Each structure stands twice: as C-alpha cells, then as structure tokens.
C-alpha cells in the first residue's frame, strides 16, 4: 500500500461528551470529570446515546493520535452533522456549516501527538435564532428554520417516524500523509465506439510524471503544471449497461505520481439520456429505451447512517436479483456512502440522485449558495466516472410544495435550481441528465400534473382513487408512487410486536405508520380503504375477530395495487418510462412504506414488483370487453426464441389441453398478444360480457425457451373477489437441491388467491402469488439450517398446509 493511503486514525478511540449549549466553547474548558462515552465513528450521537432530546445539547468529539515525526498530514472529515467547530492541538482550525461538505485540513510536520476536538452545536439553539422567513411554509417540518441549514430532514420530519436526529461524525475521519496528488476527479463520455476518460487532479510541485492505467492500457505524462487535466480516448470501448439490459462493464483506473500510486477507482462508459418531448419522458441508455423500475432508497441504518460494505452489498444484490434497475436518493435523506456507488456500478443499478432539498424555500444569500456549491462539487467528485448515475434532480417536491400552496410560478423561481445546480453539474459531469425538481412539469403545466413530465403519483394510494385510475392518469415517469402502510410478514410482526393483535391503534404500532404532518388520517387508513374496495370486506370488523387475517387482507391489497399499476406501466403500449415506489425499505420496525421491512426482509408486494420487473417476463392484463392481453418483454440484449403455453382453468382444474404458440422476440423489445388470438376463438375468458355462468376461474401463461427451460410464468384469476373457503386443497413438499438450497413445490385443488409461503430462516424466491385449480408452482428456498419448516396459506382459504 502506498504511504499516501495510510490512515493514522485507523483504530483511534473517539470520546463523546454532552455539554449545555454554549457552556463550553473550547476543548480546554471540558471538565476533567465530565462524563465521556466511547463514540462510534463513523456514526452519530444516537449510535451510542439513547435519549430523546439530542438536539438540546452541544456534543464534543475528542481523540488523540500518534503521528510519525517529520510527516506532514491531511486531516479529512468526510461529514459532520451539522454546525460545528474543529480544533487541532487546542487551536481552532475550521468551522462547519453543512453536514454534506467534507472538511480538509493540512497539518504541518511537528508534534508526535495530535489532539483533535469537534464541538457540534445544539440544533435547538441554531433553529431558535431569528432568520428571514421563506416565501412559503413547508408542510413536511414544523421548524421552518431548517430551510437555512444544510442538514437532512431525516429525524426532524415526523412522517419518517421515530428516527433520531443525526448529530456528529457521521462519515469517516482520516489522517493521512499529505498526498502529492489531491482531488482526483474522473468523468467518462462516449464518442462513437470510443470511450473518453477525463482525469483532473491538483498536483504537488514536486511531481514530475503522472501515469494513468485504465484496463490494460497505460498513459504517461510529463507534468508542467499543478493543475493536471487530461482526456484519454480508449478505442472500441465495451459499454456499461443496467443489469436488466446487458453487462455492467467497468474498467479499473489508477493514478500514479512518479513511483507512488495515489488513487484507484472503477469507471464505466455509457450514454444516458432523459428524453423529454411534449409531456413524455423516456430514459435511454446507449440508445435503448429502458423502463426504470425500483424505488426510493432509505439509509440501511437510519441511526448510524453508515453500514459495512457486506451489508450494503447484500441489500443491493437483493434489488438486482428482483429485477429492479433504478434507485432514487431522495432530497429528504442523505447522500450515500462511497460503497453504495461502487456497488451500484458493479451490479448494474441506475441511480437517480436528488440534491438535498425538499419542500422548503432555499435561501439565495451568497454564503448559503457557496456552501451548496462546495457540497455539489464534493458529491460529483465522488461520483465522477461511475456509470450508475443516471439523473440529478434539484430536490424532492421543491417546486410542487409552492405550487400546491397556490403560489404563482413567477413567485416561486429558485436560482439554485434553475442556474446554480445545472451549471455545477455541467462543469463537473457534463452531459448528465438534470431535472429541476421531482416532480416537475415538462411541457409547462403545473408541477402537480401527474401526466406531464416527472410525477409523484399517489392517485392509487394516498388520494384513494380507484385502481383503474392508473390507466387514465397517463403517468409518464413516476419518481415516487404507490405509498401504503405495508405490514411486515407474520413472523416479523411477531418478532417486532409480540403478535398481530397490536395492529390498528396500539401506540407502538401506530408510531411506525406513516402520516402526513397535520393530517387527520394515516396510510393505514389508505390501506384499509383498498381492502374494502378490492375484497368487499370491512377491514375494521375483520380486525376485531382475526388480526392475522386483517393484516393478510392489507398485504394482498397492496399486492393488487402494485401488480395492476406496474402491469399497465410496463406494457408495450404504455406511455410510462419508469416508476419508483415510495419506499424500498422501512426506517423503523412496523408497517411503513417499505417493500422491505426494517430488517431487510421482503413484505408481500416485494414479490409482486419482482415478478413484473423480471428482465424476461410475461404477464396478463384485463382489457375489459377486449379480453385478456398477454404481455411479453425481453429487456436483455439476446433474442428470445421459445414456446408460449396458455392453459384455461375452471373451478376444479384445467379445461382441455394447453394452447401453444412459437415466440420470436428480439432483444430489448416487448410485444402484446391477445389471448383470443392464441386460443383461436371468442370465449369470454375474463367474463366481461357475463353471458350465462362463468366458465373459467383462471388463466396460466408459461414461457419456455427452446431448451424447454421455464423463463417466465404468470397466473391470472378471473373475477374481482374469490370466495373464502374452508379448504382449497393446498399442499407443499420440499426437497433438497444442494447444501443451503431447497426446492418447494406448492399445489392446490381449487384456485388459490395470494399464496403465502411462511418459512423461518430461509429466503424465498417467490411468494404471494396466485395458483389456478389443479396447478402447482415450484420456488427456491435458500438459507442455512435444517430442513425448512413452516406452512403455506392462501387468502381465500381458512385451512393452511404444513410444509412436508
């Protein structure tokens, strides 16, 4: 390892001390007998201190570190939340205004021991000082002074539940020998078949040669300036693709000054565009239209705001394996750690990055703007060269908030969004797609119009529109959508709360249910509304007699909303270029917005989204009097040649032999096929005409490749509701495939609605699916331990089946 990369603070012990605001203004004033707690760095005060009023105190972080004699060093704080002062050996060295701006200090060679101290100011005191009011009040927070602070709203916006306020050294602190090449920055573009890599760095005056290695190619430069800025052309480059559409190819790059390697990274080459014409929005990667599906990201550890790389990798692998190809970092949260970006690049996951603005009126004074400029320069330097970055947005609901408050467009202009951010983006990462805010209009309509440009679509969800609204809303690109209070699975509810009996109005349960500030309803009321309308039951009466069934109805209702919405948005004739759910994961235990619970385990609609997101997929859409449509999609670069098989099922089993048709589907394409065309006659399969008695209860479509391997399948149940029976005839049998991997086959005699596989200690490849009468489905269970044990149940069956 180069000496430049050595960190003298590695393993250093930091101490944490609380003081009354303003009572201690210099580290020398800290009392000898002051209570000191070992701090977690990177981490926050809440990582080691459990009390509700953290913002009421000043917080001191202190440490001492040994430094070899004669070595000049660089002390770097990657992030301090939020307003703070830094002392080195008792001398004030820097002031911090933003939790998002790194602070770098040059320390001359000298004392063999450095004493480092950081005082983070009480946010209560900071917000208590009088400052100019904004042009509008944010509905997200009650302390409007937050508009002046460059800090996250996480922990200070009630909608996110009982999350502690972030305070302290939330990003790493390093002390390294002073590098001879600092601020290395990369940017990649594509010109024809060639890749262009731009490398910039600030060099020490002693540097004579810079060598750049990319892949197996080497380029050397004699240095004649401290401002190093070169562009390399790499012929016949292999392009980076999102994993759904191709291989996420990356190249290793290293920077060597004379004989010292000072920087290394992975870079990728791709052309990413957000094409906007009229009201429409399309995401294009390397000239291919990509349907973006995924969701809004939340920190995996909302208290510490930092996780180890293996934890991050496991989470992102789950996203990739579910067919999701885009993550949005929302303007209410925090910029993610470097490992997030490197893994997204490696795994082929696109990232939509908001600037950390949300709902408030950002100040325009020069000091505030200068802080934002430094924040963005640091962010773009970290991301530079990473092919995962797809879109940068000026924040979340930054323009929608004043629009919804009735403020005229001329009175809500924000130079930060219109000029400052795009200019810095163009300077650092030229060519990156930018939108002024999420949501925002493309054609000039109000920023609240969901059918124009970038939308936040909660017609299905918070605004209680019927599920059919998704067809008439004509959403072009939903950067947020489908927010519901989603119950975790049964075992998770038992682990978190003891039993399902807390569901409803128990304070512990309700504290995690999302609720807009000041509203008289919450998102559990939203879920109950759809239970009532989809399944024709009164959820409140069901909850009184069977809390478990009540939660199952709620889970299934969200599955229905996700399936119907994404089936429409992803179909061939759709006008929608992408849809991201709010959110991917819960911040706290309970029934939050997340498709994963706070421990990272899937909830019911996770499986619904995964099925519809598969790179090679088949699904059915009910087009009313036009019957059922079969949608087939092949996102991959390879053509799909195979056999489509359609089976019609009645109440007791399959009716007749399956219908088969050869399929030839080009790579990066999709097609629609009418079910009537496959079976060759009108049969009113979806019972739209309602002539006589209903003949069919379900339809199964299966897609096999030419080798007979099943690549996609789907089951569609006919009718709005399924009558709940005592026993639909479920059975489940498990067999070992290899160590840690099992095959589970689920069968049913009658149509089974929303079959749930409840197995402890194992990841399930699929769950919460429909089964036709007489049909079966095989899923994979992975995990360590003895033979899987548990049960399989269906929403329309009282009796469940034990796994055997």
Write the layout of secondary structure elements.
Layout lengths: L14 E5 L17 E2 L19 E9 L6 E5 L6 E5 L2 E6 L6 E5 L5 E8 L2 H6 L44 E5 L3 E11 L2 E10 L5 E6 L2 E6 L4 E8 L16 E7 L2 E8 L4 E6 L2 E6 L2 E2 L2 E6 L11 H13 L4 E4 L8 H10 L2 E5 L11 H18 L5 E5 L6 H5 L10 H14 L4 E3 L18 E4 L11 H4 L4 E5 L8 H8 L9 H4 L12 H13 L3 H7 L1 H24 L7 E4 L22 H10 L2 E7 L5 E7 L5 E10 L9 E7 L3 E6 H5 L18 E8 L4 E8 L13 E8 L2 E7 L4 E8 L3 E2 L4 E3 L4 E7 L7 E5 L6 E2 L2
Parallel strand pairs: 20-21, 20-27, 21-22, 22-23, 23-24, 25-26, 26-27
Antiparallel strand pairs: 1-2, 1-3, 3-8, 4-7, 4-9, 5-6, 5-8, 10-11, 11-14, 12-13, 12-15, 15-16, 17-18, 18-19, 28-29, 29-32, 30-31, 30-33, 33-34, 35-36, 36-40, 37-39, 37-41, 38-40, 41-42
Helix pairs in contact: 2-3, 4-6, 10-12, 11-12, 12-13
Short description:
By secondary structure, the chain is an alpha+beta fold. The protein contains 14 helices and 42 strands.
């Amino acid at each position: 390892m180069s000496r430049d990369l050595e960190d003298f603070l590695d393993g250093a012990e930091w101490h944490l001390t609380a003081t009354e605001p303003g009572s201690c203004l210099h580290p020398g004033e800290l009392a000898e007998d002051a209570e000191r707690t070992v701090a977690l760095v990177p981490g926050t005060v809440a990582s080691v201190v459990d009390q509700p009023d953290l913002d009421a105190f000043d917080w001191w972080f202190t440490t001492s570190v040994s430094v070899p004699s004669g070595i000049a060093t660089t002390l770097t704080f990657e992030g301090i939340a939020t307003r703070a002062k830094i002392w080195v050996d008792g001398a004030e060295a820097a002031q911090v205004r933003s939790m998002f701006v790194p602070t770098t200090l040059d320390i001359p060679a000298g004392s063999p021991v450095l004493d480092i101290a950081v005082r983070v100011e009480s946010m209560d005191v900071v917000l208590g000082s009088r400052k100019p009011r904004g042009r509008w009040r944010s509905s997200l927070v009650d302390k409007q002074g937050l508009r002046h602070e460059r800090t996250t709203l996480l922990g200070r916006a009630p909608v996110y539940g009982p999350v502690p306020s972030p305070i302290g050294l939330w990003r790493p602190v390093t002390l390294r020998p002073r590098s001879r090449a600092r601020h290395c920055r990369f940017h990649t573009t594509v010109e024809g078949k060639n890749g262009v890599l731009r490398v910039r760095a600030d060099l020490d005056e002693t540097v004579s040669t810079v060598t750049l290695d990319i892949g197996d190619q080497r380029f050397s430069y004699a240095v004649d300036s401290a401002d190093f800025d070169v562009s390399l052309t790499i012929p016949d480059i292999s392009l980076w693709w999102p994993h759904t559409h191709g291989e996420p190819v990356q190249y290793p790059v290293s920077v060597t000054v004379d004989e010292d390697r000072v920087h290394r990274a992975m870079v990728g080459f791709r052309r990413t565009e957000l094409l906007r014409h009229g009201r429409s929005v399309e995401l294009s990667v390397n000239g291919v239209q990509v349907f973006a599906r995924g969701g809004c990201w939340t920190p995996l550890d909302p208290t510490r705001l930092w996780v180890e790389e293996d934890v991050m990798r496991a989470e992102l692998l789950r996203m990739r394996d579910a067919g999701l190809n885009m993550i949005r970092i929302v303007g209410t949260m925090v910029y993610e750690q470097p490992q997030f970006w490197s893994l997204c690049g490696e795994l082929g996951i696109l990232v939509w990055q908001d600037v950390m603005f949300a709902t408030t009126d950002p100040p325009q004074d020069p000091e505030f703007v200068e802080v934002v400029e430094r924040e963005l320069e640091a962010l773009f330097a970290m991301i530079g060269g990473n092919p995962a970055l797809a879109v940068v947005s000026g924040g979340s609901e930054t323009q929608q908030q004043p629009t919804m408050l009735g403020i005229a467009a001329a009175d809500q202009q924000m130079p930060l969004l219109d000029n400052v951010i795009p200019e810095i983006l163009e300077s650092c990462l030229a060519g990156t797609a930018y939108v002024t805010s999420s949501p925002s209009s493309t054609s000039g309509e109000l920023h609240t119009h969901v059918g124009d440009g970038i939308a936040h679509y909660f017609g299905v969800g918070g605004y209680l529109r019927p599920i059919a609204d998704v067809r008439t809303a004509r959403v072009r690109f939903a950067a947020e959508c489908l927010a519901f209070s989603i119950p975790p699975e049964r075992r998770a509810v038992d682990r978190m709360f003891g039993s399902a009996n807390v569901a409803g109005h128990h304070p512990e349960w309700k504290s995690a249910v999302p609720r807009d500030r000041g509203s008289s309803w919450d998102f559990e009321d939203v879920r109950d509304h759809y239970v009532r309308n989809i399944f024709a039951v009164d959820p409140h009466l069901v909850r009184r007699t069977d809390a478990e069934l009540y939660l199952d109805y709620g889970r299934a209702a969200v599955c229905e909303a996700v399936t119907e919405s994404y089936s429409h948005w992803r179909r061939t004739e759709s006008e929608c270029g992408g849809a991201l759910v709010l959110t991917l994961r819960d911040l706290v235990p309970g029934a939050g917005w997340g498709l994963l619970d706070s421990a990272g385990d899937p909830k019911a609609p996770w499986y619904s989204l995964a099925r519809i997101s598969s790179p090679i997929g088949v699904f059915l859409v009910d087009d009313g009097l036009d019957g059922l449509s079969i949608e087939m999609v092949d996102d991959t670069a390879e053509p799909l040649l195979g056999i489509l098989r359609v089976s019609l099922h009645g109440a007791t089993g399959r009716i007749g032999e399956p219908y088969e048709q050869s399929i030839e589907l080009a790579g990066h394409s999709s097609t629609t096929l009418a079910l009537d065309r496959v079976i060759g006659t009108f049969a009113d399969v979806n019972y739209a005409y309602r002539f006589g008695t209903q003949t069919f209860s379900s339809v199964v479509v299966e897609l096999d490749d030419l080798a007979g391997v099943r690549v996609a399948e789907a089951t569609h149940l006919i009718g709005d509701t399924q009558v709940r029976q005592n026993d639909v005839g479920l059975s489940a049998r498990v067999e070992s495939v290899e160590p840690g991997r099992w095959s589970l086959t689920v069968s049913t005699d009658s149509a089974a609605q929303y079959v749930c596989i409840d197995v402890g200690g194992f990841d399930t490849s699929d769950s919460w699916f429909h089964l036709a009468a007489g049909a079966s489905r095989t899923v994979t269970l992975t995990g360590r331990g003895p033979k899987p044990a548990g049960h399989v149940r269906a929403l329309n069956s009282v009796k469940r089946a034990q796994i055997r």
